[in-house]
Specification:
heterodimer, A: 10 helices, about 0% strand, B: about 525 residues, FAD/NAD(P)-binding domain, seven-stranded mixed beta sheet, six-stranded parallel beta sheet, about 25% helix
């Protein structure tokens, strides 16, 4: 998957979460364009052991998952300490590339969001937790539909990764699967 | 066992008497009945062929395996999640097994307003009986009604609302509750364990990971004849693999109400009348979550056994109403429905084991559309509730809250995306009507659809429909549609049995005309 990075185009974003033209212009703006490669390139098949997200993108993703899935409980692990990020990565590798292509650019936009939208001189990963929450809330409540939908996409992925982990189940009282091994013969 | 086209290295060319596109609730039935009638049948399924050994009861593994876009497919404005299967057996592998025949008033509506005089309960009875026998449809026993459904029943009965314990298609159910993630015990009588193996036993050849892109015709006028089906294998991650082509004089399109019109439009079929992909109904639903002092573990046991039909009277008005249905999810699916994030979200999520969901499912009159997107398998689904439907769904939401409170909830969450509403006993429920479900635009509250339908609807008039009374395409001889897309209107009831019965009927009609169609 490496080497093919696409911008947050309107069409690709529609495939991800639906959308409007409002943020398309923003998505094509200089900061995002600098983050992207050929938007129409079809990525080659993923080789064994491939990762969808580059290490830097995975760092942003982990920071986002930590805030979206924040429980306030001292005994809750961080996303990196569970298989959440790996589960999201596997999902993105398995999905239609037309659906997932804008995700790396979206994560970069989230990381630079405090600069772009909030006038803060720090990237998302560098903010304290409360400021990270405020930044995410800016996405969730944005007047731009596309930003709101970008948040919804990240929320869906974050909960997909986090709540699929046994470490999260005990926090919500879910007993887990009845099967511990592949199905009965 | 099926052939996995994803592993194919060379292009594939086949010939058959009949080619069936899709192996779900319509396609599997058509394939088995055509094979039983002696036809050489090829079945093309765009998804993989999983079995119970693959059903691990884990959401991170099963959602990508069983659902289009891992369960994250949405309408174009992002407002409605559209859950559809993408595997051998289609959506019947993840559905929750409500088993209803087509309501008589809906059949009357289809006869009288869509020119379909043969759609009577009597005429359909042989198909219903064959399907119900094959799917082992039976009443759910009282001792199989789980805690979630008992709560909903208690609430509805306290309020004097009509409801009943339904029929289902399970045999030897162990009540694990994992129906929506695929039955690890083969107790759910989905197409995967009934009609698909029956079709294979009768000689049908099943190809998995085979995504059909076009249906070819001879281009004849005034009416073309179907000639072949073409597509590509679906490689890992949905990437296109080797091409395939199947020559057949009979083609049954049963790819579902999203993919079927997409395939027809890509094939240039039905362009003139503009009916292909139009008239989309979704049975959109909205849910409320009740919280109870004692743990419910709503995810254990048969998820849906009770059905509240107080608010739908199809005899009086076949174009309006909604039903209330219990709903439980596992953590990923549940978390996606709850508002906000972080601690605000966890405030609800930490009571997962104490949570009971109830949804209102609308018999919608609003119409959307399906159009091809930028590549095969990436459809554009457009749908917006009209004001009347939005008002009805808001009313349904109010009744969900009311029933949960009557069932003993100490509070109920109405999951508005902004400023979620928490209602407690004695609160003013009219606030829900004032806020509605779409007043502030799309995405005001999570909406979902598991029943897309009506995009290739049946009718006598080619100017207002795509297929005729027995499923044959007006524009192309030998091309039949046999899935939920043929419903002339919203069904207003769970669609599994109607879909299967209409497919059975179409298959038997094809067999009666086999000599003519093969000529």
């Amino acid at each position: 998957m490496r080497g093919t990075r696409a911008p947050l185009t309107r069409r690709s974003f529609l495939a991800l979460a639906g959308g409007s033209a409002a943020l398309a212009a923003l998505a094509r703006s200089a900061p995002l364009a600098a983050l992207a490669c050929d938007p129409d390139a079809e990525p080659p098949p993923a080789p064994p052991g491939a990762r969808f997200f580059a290490p830097d993108e995975a760092d942003v993703l982990a920071a986002v998952v930590d805030r979206i899935a924040e429980t306030g409980r001292a005994d809750a692990p961080r996303a990196r300490e569970t298989g959440a990020i790996e589960a999201i990565d596997r999902l993105c590798l398995a999905l239609d590339p037309g659906l997932t292509r804008p995700l790396p650019a979206l994560l970069r936009l989230v990381d630079w969001g405090p600069w772009l939208f909030d006038g803060a001189f720090a990237r998302f990963r560098e903010l304290p937790p409360e400021a990270q929450d405020a930044s995410l809330r800016g996405w969730m409540e944005s007047r731009f539909a596309l930003r709101r939908q970008g948040f919804e996409a990240l929320k869906g992925l974050a909960f997909y990764g986090w709540y699929a982990q046994p470490a999260s189940w005990r926090l919500v009282g879910y007993a887990g699967p009845l099967l511990r091994a592949p199905g009965p013969p | 066992m099926s052939v996995d086209l994803a592993a194919a290295r060379e292009p594939l060319a086949l010939r058959a008497d009949a080619c069936v596109i899709g192996s779900g609730g319509g396609g599997a039935v058509a394939a088995a009945e055509l094979a039983r009638g002696g036809l050489d049948v090829v079945v093309l399924e765009q998804g993989p062929h999983w079995t119970r050994r693959d059903f691990t009861q884990r959401e991170d593994e099963m959602l990508p395996r069983l659902f289009e876009e891992a369960g994250m497919r949405r309408t174009e404005d992002g407002s409605i999640t559209v859950l559809q299967g993408r595997n051998v057996g289609g959506s019947t592998v993840h559905n929750l097994c409500y088993a209803f025949r087509t309501p008589d008033p809906i059949l009357a509506l289809w006869r009288e307003e869509h020119g379909l005089p043969s759609l009577t309960a009597e005429a359909l009875a042989p198909s219903f009986e064959r399907v119900e026998r094959m799917l082992k449809v039976k009443p759910i026993r009282e001792d199989e009604v789980n805690a979630l459904n008992r709560i909903v029943r208690a609430g509805a009965e306290k309020l004097g609302y009509s409801g009943f314990v339904t029929k289902h298609n399970r045999e030897g159910c162990v009540q694990s509750g994992y129906c929506i993630l695929g039955c690890s015990y083969d107790a759910k009588q989905s197409m995967l364990v009934t009609y698909v193996p029956e079709a294979e036993r009768l000689g049908a050849r099943l190809y998995a990971n085979a995504r059909v892109e076009t249906v070819e015709t001879d281009g004849g006028a005034p009416r073309a004849r179907v000639r072949a089906v073409a597509g590509r294998a679906a490689g890992p991650g949905g990437r296109p693999g080797v091409p395939f082509r199947v020559e057949a004089r009979i083609v049954v399109l049963a790819a579902g109400a999203v993919a079927s019109p997409e395939i027809l439009r890509r094939s240039g079929i039905g362009r003139g009348a503009g009916q292909v992909g139009a008239h989309l109904h979704l049975h959109p639903s909205v849910m409320a979550a009740g919280f109870f002092e004692e743990p419910i573990h709503a995810y254990r046991g048969i998820p849906q056994s009770y059905y509240v039909d107080e608010f739908i009277d199809l005899e009086r008005d076949p174009r309006a109403g909604y039903v209330l249905m219990p709903i439980a999810g596992f953590p990923v699916l549940t978390a996606a429905q709850l508002p906000g994030f972080g601690r605000e979200h966890f405030r609800f999520m930490q009571r997962f084991a104490h949570m009971a969901g109830l949804l209102a499912l609308l018999h919608d009159q609003s119409e959307g559309s399906v159009q091809p997107g930028d590549a095969p398998g990436r459809p554009r689904i457009r749908y917006a509730l009209d004001p009347r439907d939005a008002a009805q769904l808001a009313e349904g939401l109010l009744h969900c809250v009311e029933v949960l409170l009557a069932g003993g909830a100490y509070e109920v969450l109405v999951p508005y995306a902004r400023d979620p509403l928490v209602v407690r006993p004695g609160d003013d429920l009219a606030r829900i009507l004032r806020r509605g479900v779409a007043q502030s635009g799309p995405n005001a509250i999570p909406l979902a659809s598991t029943h897309p339908q009506s995009t290739c609807r049946m009718g006598r008039d080619p100017r207002t429909s795509v297929v005729g009374e027995l499923g044959e395409c007006h524009d192309v001889a030998g091309l039949f549609v046999a899935d939920m897309s043929v419903f002339p209107t919203s069904l207003g009831a769970p669609p599994q049995i109607t879909t299967a019965a209409l497919a059975d009927r179409t298959a038997h009609h094809i067999l009666e005309r086999r000599a003519e169609l093969a000529a």
